[in-house]
Amino acid sequence: MRWIREHLVLLLGLLVLIYMFVPIFVVVLMSFNDPVSRNVYRFDGFTLDNWTNFCGAQGMCDALWLSIRIGLLATVVATILGTLAAFALVRHDFAGRSASNLLIFLPMAAPEIVLGSSLLALFVSSGFAGQLGFWTIFIAHVMFCLSFVVVTVRARLAGMDDNLEQAAMDLYATPSQTFWRVTFPLVLPGIVGAALLSFSLSFDDFIITNLNAGSETTFPMYVWGAAQRGVPMQVNVVGTIMFLLSVAIVVAGEITSRRRRAALT
Amino acid sequence: MTSTAGVAPVAAADVRADTGRRRGRTGYLLLLPAFLTLLLFFVLPFYSLVATSLYDPSGSDIEGYSMTYHVANYWDALQEFWRPLLRSLWYGAIATVICLVLGYVLAYAMAFKAGRWKYLLLVLVIAPFFTSFLVRTLSWKLILADDGYVVDLLQFLHILGEDGRLLATPVAVVAGLVYNFLPFMILPLFASLDRIDHRLVEASSDLYASPFVGFFKVTWPLSLPGVVSGTLLTFIPAVGDYINQVLLGSPNQRMIGSVIQSQFVDANNYPSAASLSTMLMLLILAMVLVYIRRAGTEELL
């Protein structure tokens, strides 16, 4: 009894965590499901077909490929622009700082439906209504990923001690040597984190994309459409792979940073 | 700059001693691309949205719209759709309160009770976030299904009637919102709870405060920045979301996001959709401004 009372908060916390993982468990389970019909969404039997016949779901792999291409392109652009801006905000002094901070903050505070409908209003009123497609999705994704990149990289930069850079310069490193050999490697984990966040935001976005996609279909739009007709089980395979991939990336990140720390001491 | 060694080849005049920030053009050049992107694709679109909301409602996207400063669009849209708008705010508020309770428990356990498992738990909180939002919401549909375990159990306990169901009810929609936006609550809460100095809580108990009093007089006030940013980060996306409503609810639970989407895409009624969208943004903006007054921008970022 006493043990329970002492650990009550921890136990309740673990219950919340379990609640967060129940749907993931269902996703993994359903990736091995052998459905009786497309209209019945329940576990009927075990099969590996969804994994082996991954692209068997009509149109899914095309949608997936589109999402990956847009995700990669938007991530590269948003990460570069956002990293530059983060350096400006942390390392440079200029007029209009707090206005810039607000401008970067607002896209994160706006509901997606507002961001999406504003962009659509712009595209329509500037005569691009007929050209909605790859590039309009790309623009939308760069726009909403940008703020998250700035915030992530800025947090890394702001928490960084500048002693190492001072030391490099004391040892006669040129400013560009200092930047590429000291500053950049130190900020890199922040940039990588921002890029991963940005890719997953882009890959997962539905509301903004759905308004600006024209006749293109991204993976979330495919799932949405399938939800009305009957969901192919391969969708759960994608969910499972995404989950495993993100866990693998986090673990790999942790191992490299431990190795680095071990190498330093 | 903390140590200003004499040999450092940085001209001292370029650096402001108090902040360590460099002055000059480079800062502007670095910021410029991001600034232009946001100006072109965030500020300008919002301007077009407001403009569209004032167009003559008798136009169409084929004939084109004319600008007539038709403010009555707002009134018409409100009259037709005040229910979904209010409902969205209501669902968003309930979901936020539940998230706050659940999130606080987990964040508190992580910050104070988890010891060396703290960061592992943090990873576990973030991990579900990287699995497709829609796929996870669909699996809720399975969990809450009419012949599923949850409904069976609730029927067995007589919480639900014989033919009672969860899907297509407000309960399912709010449960979906809570589930999907919980990480947005936990992360800021954890960040601010983790910063609290444990000695302050110990001091309160040394001064004969009960754990209950100690929590409400010490821990809770110190975690307020996390509470404020967590509630905003949960409430804002929850109000605008329609994925949970469409997948888990029914048209009876229609939320404002779904109205805006279908007014734009299905009904092609741009002025009405734009005026609803503008109202939603203004409501949210007002709340964010109140927040900034309270806590300052940098705190949330």
Structural description of this entry:
The complex is a heterodimer of chains A (265) and B (301). Chain A has 265 residues and is mainly alpha-helical. Chain A is built from 12 helices and no strands. Chain A has helices spanning 2-6, 8-30, 49-52, 60-91, 97-109, 112-125, 134-158, 163-170, 175-204, 207-212, 219-229, 234-264. Chain B has 301 residues and is mainly alpha-helical. Chain B has one domain: MetI-like fold. Chain B contains 13 helices and no strands. Chain B has helices at 25-53, 72-113, 118-126, 133-143, 149-156, 170-194, 198-206, 211-222, 224-240, 243-248, 256-265, 270-295, 297-300. The chains are: A mainly alpha (265), B mainly alpha (301). At the A-B interface, helix 2, helix 4, helix 5, helix 6 and helix 7 of A face helix 1, helix 2, helix 3, helix 4 and helix 6 of B.
Topology, please?
The complex is a heterodimer of chains A (265) and B (301).
Chain A: H1 2-6, H2 8-30, H3 49-52, H4 60-91, H5 97-109, H6 112-125, H7 134-158, H8 163-170, H9 175-204, H10 207-212, H11 219-229, H12 234-264
Chain B: H1 25-53, H2 72-113, H3 118-126, H4 133-143, H5 149-156, H6 170-194, H7 198-206, H8 211-222, H9 224-240, H10 243-248, H11 256-265, H12 270-295, H13 297-300
Helix pairs in contact in B: 1-12, 2-6, 2-9, 2-12, 6-9, 7-8, 9-12, 11-12
Feature tags:
heterodimer; A: mainly alpha; MetI-like fold; 12 helices; B: 301 residues; mainly alpha; 13 helices; 69% helix
In total, the number of domains of chain A comes to 2
The structural domain count of chain B equals 1
CATH topology of chain B: MetI-like fold
Structural category of chain B is: mainly alpha
Measured between the Cα atoms of the first and last residue of chain B, the distance is 23 Å
Shape of chain B: globular
Q: What does the average pLDDT of chain B come to?
A: 82
Question: What CATH first level of chain B would be assigned?
Answer: Mainly Alpha
